[in-house]
Amino acid sequence: MVSTEFVFIGGLFGTVALLVYSLSGVLFRGPSELEQRLRKHDPDAPPQPGRSGRDVLGPVVSRIGEAAARPFMPRKEETQSALRMQLTHAGVYSTSAMQLVVGLKVILLAVGGIAGYFAGAAVGGIALWVFPYGLAVFGYMAPTLWLRHMVRSRKASLERSLPDALDLMVVCVEAGLTIDAAIQRVGHEIALAHPEISKEFGITHMETRIGVARVDALRNLGQRTGSPALQSLAAMLVQTEKFGTSIAQALRVHGDSLRTKRQHMAEEQAAKTTVKLAFPVVLFIFPCLIVVLGGPAFILFFKSPIFNR
């Protein structure tokens, strides 16, 4: 029969999974009311995905996360700014994202400690002390690890899609469009293939429409994403506008340099493959080969008259 501890752990796991699923819907919510009003008057705006069913639990989960995070919110402005910048680099622009992340840390810390206690009580021994602390620390660090993973994957996605976007921008600029119109057009056309950079170009276009200077909007693009490739693109466009050089030629050269850099990174990863394969070969493949090839010889050796005396 199934013990009550395992039933409680299963129910607790299901509750935490539902909470994390709901919180992900709150963090990645749909466009705001201002964005919706602007897109109503912009027929060329890229299509945005609609809200999912999990957004129904958004207000309730948001209140729970904010209530849990309120006593544990960082007091220093530097810490809050660093966390807010990390969320921005991950593509999370919700105003309550910081409170939700801190609240999720506190909730997972408590849930991990309780689940670890019951799991350790079921196993017994030293696990009664190791499991609660281990699961509590893992629950507290899980949102931070997820956030770092999102930042790395988003930067990699932006850097992969930027050369294609620059090729389209070169075509648009050579066709006679301004740089603002080219950014808006490329963001619309590339939305299906590269939604991340399409979203960033759309935000930059909306900033210029509401009165932000083009130089500031381009600099915000680099700071908001945290991608070195987009930061260099913003700096290049600012210098091109300042000195009056050809934008199309600058975009073409910059796109070629980014494509060459991407090729060098791929070659570097390929060169590291042999070193990375050494560890699984030594730990997993060589022992199997030794057992398969040397096993019969060792068996015959131990059955020899030397060991029968």
Describe the protein's architecture and organization.
With 309 residues, the protein is mainly α. The protein has a domain at 4-157. It is 78% helix and 0% strand. It contains 11 helices and no strands. α5 (97-123) runs antiparallel to α6. The protein is flat. The two termini are 53 Å apart. Residues 46-57 have low confidence and may be disordered.
What is the strand and helix layout of this fold?
Layout: H1 4-27, H2 33-40, H3 58-69, H4 77-89, H5 97-123, H6 127-174, H7 179-189, H8 195-209, H9 214-225, H10 228-243, H11 247-302
Task: State the separation between the terminal residues, measured CA to CA.
Answer: 53 Å
Topology, number of strands: 0
Strand content: under 5%
Q: From the alpha-carbon coordinates, what is the Rg to the nearest angstrom? A: 27 Å
Stretches where pLDDT is under 50 for at least 5 consecutive residues are 46-57
Order of helices and strands: HHHHHHHHHHH
Separate helix tally: 11
Q: What structural class should be given to the helix and strand makeup?
A: mainly alpha
Largest sheet: none
Mean pLDDT: 78
Oligomer: single chain
